[in-house]
UniProtKB/TrEMBL annotation:
Residues 1-12 have a biased composition (Basic and acidic residues). Residues 1-30, 125-152 are annotated as: Disordered. It comes from Urochloa decumbens. Residues 13-22 have a biased composition (Pro residues). This is THUMP domain-containing protein. Residues 132-146 have a biased composition (Low complexity).
């Protein structure tokens, strides 16, 4: 009897070569700078360091958000996720109301802006940084940190401004006149209906309709314009308007602007506007457009809120304020006059 033949062994195949321990990283990751690698991990936008110059030159709309101290990064991510949805909703609402010719013009403007951006990129290809990288806008797609969700691009050019105070965030639009009050109204409706989850880090969202240099002349002009817009939207304009005024200096009362050591005695130092002066200017501006208006601190129909913006790098003697004229449903009068808290609506929804 013949012995059984041994089973044929499969041919030997060499395993694929593994990565060498000291092999260089891929070209894409290898080109990332340390701050870019950090930004990719935390998904946060850069500060817009050009904001100071633009805020002193022209008006902007935006949102001032309060949050716990040392939780600014968590609040920034949360604020972007909240704002991006409602900014897009406001854009859709406006575009639906636009006439067909307006839509065509908007498409042409968009096409022209894209062509201009492409030409800018072609010119700056040889440089180490493009123009759009240095603006700090959330929707910036030329740098890794803009991948904060391509959702942030829908936040339509909102940029994060560096502030000198903790527990505050300031997002601004490239210009003023945007419907930020309507956006905040939609946010409160979503909170009360349970559509929007209760924010964990963002306490209050103050909608800034216009910014201005904190001087009597500029503040009077800004308040007059915004209050006139409010009157135009009111149904019965013959009845007296009950209004209240709030002025928040964000703790600057204890640290008044001090004169510089090198300043001579002949130069007049511009002292920060105090509360009494601010109230007089705002009241005069309101009376100039609504003669039958009366002050009512307990149950105002509308509130004029003036918030000093502690923008980092503001020169001595200059300051920037955010101004809004808010209806009664967006404000609270106790313990002090301010914009409503986001948490109160969430608690009311849970009790239901």
């Amino acid at each position: 009897m013949a012995a059984p033949e041994p089973e044929a062994k499969p041919p030997y195949r060499e395993p694929p070569p593994g990565p060498e321990p000291n092999a260089p990283a891929a070209a894409g990751s290898q080109d990332l700078q340390p701050w870019e690698q950090h930004a990719v991990v935390i998904n946060l936008p850069r500060y817009d360091y050009r904001a100071l110059g633009s805020l002193l030159l022209r008006s902007h709309s935006g949102f001032l958000i309060t949050c716990p101290i040392k939780r600014e990064k968590s609040a920034t991510k949360e604020a972007i996720s909240i704002l991006e949805e409602y900014i897009c909703h406001a854009k859709r609402h406006v575009s639906e109301q636009a006439e067909p010719c307006d839509v065509e013009n908007a498409k042409k403007r968009k096409f022209c802006s894209l062509a201009a951006e492409n030409s800018e990129k072609a010119v700056t290809d040889g440089n180490s940084i493009t123009v759009s990288e240095s603006t700090g806008s959330i929707g910036d797609s030329s740098s890794p940190q803009s991948k904060t969700g391509e959702n942030a691009d829908s936040a339509s050019n909102l940029s994060l401004v560096k502030l000198s105070r903790s527990g505050l965030l300031f997002f601004k639009f490239p210009s003023g006149g945007l419907h930020v009050v309507e956006m905040l109204t939609e946010i409160f409706h979503s909170l009360s209906s349970g559509k929007l989850k209760s924010p964990q880090w963002c306490h209050r969202i103050f909608p800034i309709q216009e910014t201005c240099v904190l001087s009597e002349k500029d503040l009077h002009a800004t308040v007059s314009k915004l209050f006139l817009d409010f009157l135009r939207s009111k149904n019965n304009q013959d009845e007296p308007v009950k209004f209240a005024v709030a002025y928040n200096r964000r703790g600057i009362d204890e640290t008044e602007m001090k004169p510089q050591k090198n300043s001579n005695e002949g130069s007049n130092q511009q002292v920060l506007m105090d509360r009494e002066q601010c109230f007089k200017v705002v009241a005069a501006a309101v009376k100039s457009v609504a003669e039958n208006s009366v002050v009512d601190l307990k149950s105002p129909e509308v509130a004029v809120l003036v918030e000093m913006l502690p923008v980092s790098g503001v020169p001595v003697g200059s300051s920037v304020a955010g101004v809004s004229v808010l209806p009664a449903e967006l404000i609270s009068t106790k313990p002090r006059l301010c914009v409503r808290s986001l948490a109160s609506d969430a608690k009311a929804t849970k009790k239901k």
